[in-house]
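Example 3.
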Amino acid sequence: MKKIQVQAPGLFTTVQDLGREGFGPMGVSPSGAADPISLRLGNRLVRNAEDAAALEMTLLGGAFLFPEGAVVALTGSDFGASLDGVPVGPWASVEARPGQTLRLGPTRSGARCYLCVQGGISVKPFLGSASTHILSGLGGLDGRPLRKGDVLNMGPANSSFRKRTLAPQALQSLSPRKVLRVTPGPQTDWFPESSRRLFYSVAYRVTEESNRMGLRLEGAPIPENSGGHMISEGVSLGAIQIPHGGQPIILFVEQQTTGGYPKIANVISADLSSVGQLRPRDEIRFEPVGWETARSLFQKQERLLALPELILE
Amino acid sequence: MSTSVPGIAQFQPSSDDSLLVSFGHEISLDAHQHVVKLLRLLESQPVAGIRNLHPAYCSVLIKFDAQKLQHHELGALLQPYLARLEDVPLPESRQVEIPVCYGGEYGPDLAEVSALHGLTPQQAIDLHASASYVVYFLGFAPGFAYLGGLPEALVTPRLPKPRRSVPPGSVGIAGSQSGVYPFATPGGWRLLGRTPIAMFRPDRSAMSLLSIGDRVRFTPISPEQFSALESA
């Protein structure tokens, strides 16, 4: 089995695939890639199934040695990669020869970069998925971020190398947004009109206390609701909670499965990958859309992602 | 945008791919039984396009594939399920005993909680261990059970400032609920004790010790028994 030797882990690098859906009754959230679009495209560039496991790096990348070589692709944000000193651009497959080392640096754009390898990263699955769930220490490589000296196995690769790149127009229409479109949340009506107007008119800054569980925002506080008495209920991915103090929290891929704060809005499915690229100190805004718009944006995105001509060979 | 279903449930979109089904807006055994029944029905006769279920006190959040379903279509598919809800038999509740070492390093908030209620620590322990709790649902983190049935005399608000990390196995109370932390997580519940029993183990066939609808009792144990069980 081909291996990857972790020479430097980067700031926070975990094994992720598209997550484990369906275990809500046990309190297990899906986890999975924070920017699933980048993971899916990266896997296609190296001729994997879209849901193969890859490495998700955060803000600062690592260094990875391929003793037996590998076909790799970097997607998501540009972490200034080089292969034995030769610059490697994102959104294209590259062949690493045996003994070569891929080095990444600090991000030049958004929060996350994916390293996809042909054959995928092979780890013992937890509830059917390779994704690391940090809170419970399960999944991925021993349920934790990578450390220096770790050795990862790659799955069997079934084809020889042919360079693949992403069609440039795809990159444009899939580029991360800073204006997140949202639908109403289950408690939107609890917030008076003035609070809702405020929420949509100001910019919020992503704070340092943001991670895969949730993004804490900072900006004009939303006044405490007077709408009702909240009883904990299931929370959806991308739900925007307003806790005491009024600073919004976007619940993210490793979210708690239930929560007791009122939710003013919910990021639409088509913009969830953009949330995965937000960095601390980024400024974002929210734009309300209707259910029909949210649905058609998601379907349009999925149609685009399904196009064979998205990948050029 | 919420719709009343004649009788018992209310539908409300929660996101563009999820629908919240609520059985009233109060924590009650009645609402809980509706939640369990809907969960059991949807698990035994799955609806194509449903991807996940999040039961809670008096609601079930249903996540669906937005390429296959819309909110109103899912609502229509759920109608026959809701209509049959009253006829779904509930299995006898499983009884689970959880050994707990109370107080000291195991339950750093026992002294304060007792004092708040004018009880001795031993009285507080006796009260907590005297009740039969029901698992309303699992949420927050893998295997975390929200237990209803805390004696009135122990009802205590959360800590004003949550701890950054709570040791796994910690048994806490918050409001009128009790619960056990399966993992080292941040937490704002007041800690009365700790169990040496693993609440969630991926190598066990039923990974979570507790499931929705179970009945739970806490049994006081000594630090020596705690150590013996922990290393068992």
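The first helix of chain A runs from residue 36 to 45. The interface with chain B takes residues 21-28, 30, 126-127, 133, 135-138, 183-186, 228-229, 231-239, 256-258, 263, 266-269, 291, 294-295, 298-299, 302 of chain A (CB under 8 Å).
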